[in-house]
UniProtKB/TrEMBL annotation:
Residues 2-187 form the Clp R domain. GO terms for molecular function: ATP binding; peptidase activity. The keyword Nucleotide-binding applies. The keyword Iron does not apply. The lineage of its organism: Bacteria, Bacillati, Actinomycetota, Actinomycetes, Kitasatosporales. One of its GO terms (biological process) is proteolysis. Keywords: ATP-binding, Hydrolase, Nucleotide-binding, Protease, Repeat. Pfam families: Clp_N. This is ATP-dependent Clp protease ATP-binding subunit ClpA. It comes from the Bacteria.
């Protein structure tokens, strides 16, 4: 599949791996793909994000991703659902961090010595990349670009889609910016 990736899409994957290698987890997850997309400049994906007003608000997206990571990867919708059951996720996070330190629920360990090897793709990231192929095929694009990865992130439930939607970036708005009219090409 990677032979169909454009240089921009390959750059996103490479940057996502770099996030993990710098200590941000053990495997590449959808959040890492989104962080890598936020770092891109001069690509179709970065153009679309800028056109939708995210250019100057990228740090807000990064902050929202950090907050979700502190909640052990729970989306705000998950936290709200738990609140409906009387479970205060913010209180749980505060208590855990009081005892174990800030970021204790993120799953990262300070002593990385117990784990060795190269990072791999997590299930969610694999799903996003597979979905990006489907998105490219639906748009009748020959290659998978960073814009297809971005579109796939907005289509899959989870933290990246929720954070992007909270910042006004949805699948529909991206399709309008990238392809015009809001619909896939006829097929």
């Amino acid at each position: 599949m990677f032979e169909r990736f454009t240089n921009d899409a390959r750059g996103v994957v490479k940057s996502a791996f770099e996030y993990v290698e710098r200590g941000d987890g053990r495997s590449v997850e959808p959040e890492h793909l989104l962080l890598a997309l936020l770092d891109r400049e001069g690509s179709r994906g970065s153009f679309a994000l800028t056109a939708l007003g995210l250019g100057e608000r990228r740090e807000s997206v990064r902050q929202a991703l950090r907050q979700a990571r502190r909640r052990a990867g729970l989306s705000q919708a998950d936290a709200d659902a738990l609140a409906g059951l009387g479970i205060d996720v913010a209180e749980i996070v505060a208590r855990v961090e009081e005892v174990h330190g800030v970021g204790a629920m993120s799953g990262d360990r300070k002593d990385k010595g117990w784990w060795s090897g190269r990072p791999s793709f997590g299930r969610g990231a694999k799903g996003v990349l597979e979905h990006s192929l489907r998105v490219a095929l639906a748009q009748r694009d020959r290659h998978i670009g960073d814009e297809h990865i971005l579109l796939a992130l907005t289509m899959r439930p989870g933290v990246p889609a929720e954070v992007l939607a909270d910042h006004g970036v949805t699948y529909e708005s991206l399709v309008r910016v990238l392809y015009g009219g809001g619909e896939a090409k006829a097929g």
